[in-house]
Amino acid sequence: MVKVCVCGAAGGIGQPLSLLLKQSERITHLSLYDIVNTPGVAADLSHINTKSKVTGHVGPEQLKDAIQDSAVVVIPAGVPRKPGMTRDDLFKINAGIVRDLATAAAKYAPKAFMCIISNPVNSTVPIVAEVFKQHNVYDPRRIFGVTTLDIVRASTFVSELIGDEPSKLQVPVVGGHSGVTILPLLSQVTNKLTQDQIEKVTHRIQFGGDEVVKAKNGAGSATLSMAFAGARFALAVIDAAFAGKDIVECTYINLEADQNGAKAVKDLVGGDVPYFSVPVKLGKNGVERVLPIGSISPYEKQLFTKAASELKGNIAKGTNFVAGSKL
Ligand code: NAD
Ligand code: LMR
């Protein structure tokens, strides 16, 4: 039995993400939770002739049923950006939403793999971790910030420049998920780019979200590419945990997930940063191993240093929010 609960399932990401998950033969129950419209979305998806049962749940009184015994909880619930906003501007609304969903997960699905999409990811992942700690069910190997869209973008944008097949070009992207905290490791992928191209494409990857926010002109942020990326990540977690597949993905985690995790990052950023997106080997308990970030160029080293201070602030904001909340 692999029950997957999507929280925010009626939204711009939630609907196409649920559609992509409905295509998986490994998922037996797709549970759709939102504060609006999930009965309709569930009825619609339930006509697709794949294995999973689909159920729709609306509003806090149905959250327990939605989430109970889920193996995976994917959270794209909350508000998206409008032009001129940063992801951190979403904290005021999304922090409470994520905290409450994490509380339900800690009570009713404490072993679930938690895949957090809601922004600001740099802060919402620490929120989920702190809630799980308060309920004494914390396992850092099972809580993931989904940064896969940065990796998908990096592969697209770099292959546009060097002409490789984008789906085969893997560009590791580490750090966090906002602006300068997004750290693409282009030096590990190609030597075909000039320094000017490296700087331009690095900036494009770091601010790719803004490109979509601007183009949507007030109608939200990336939804379809995020659904693609979110499904890729959730299915990777499922394939590794329930089908024993050998999978490596970059994801934003608490580095306590592996005893070597903190060291791998400390040497590169020159200090302690408790959460970081790193390449991880996934397995039956989530993070099996944090893999080395590998060598970085002097230009990338400067980017790491810039990222560290912003990340630390974002992490502290999430952690302190739960410390100040009554659960
Ligand atoms: P949206 O407004 O289209 O959908 C959000 C959904 O969340 C809505 O259906 C809404 O009803 C629901 N919701 C609100 N409060 C809820 C609650 N308490 N419980 C359950 N559901 C609730 O927004 P979207 O475009 O789907 O974006 C969702 C989030 O994902 C935003 O925070 C956005 O910034 C983030 N995002 C993250 C990434 C990433 O790479 N991690 C990429 C794109 C967007
Ligand atoms: C993205 O990277 O597209 C998302 O984080 C949404 C945003 O606000 O940019």
TrEMBL record:
Q: What are its GO biological-process terms?
A: malate metabolic process; tricarboxylic acid cycle
**Keywords on this record?**
NAD, Oxidoreductase, Tricarboxylic acid cycle
Where the record annotates domain Lactate/malate dehydrogenase N-terminal, the positions are 2-145
Q: Which residues form the active site?
A: H177
Q: Give residues annotated as binding substrate.
A: R81, R87, N119, R153
GO MF terms held by the record: L-malate dehydrogenase (NAD+) activity
Instruction: Write one Pfam family the protein is assigned to.
Output: Ldh_1_N
Reaction catalyzed: (S)-malate + NAD(+) = oxaloacetate + NADH + H(+)
Put simply, this protein is called Malate dehydrogenase
The lineage is: Eukaryota, Fungi, Fungi incertae sedis, Mucoromycota, Mucoromycotina
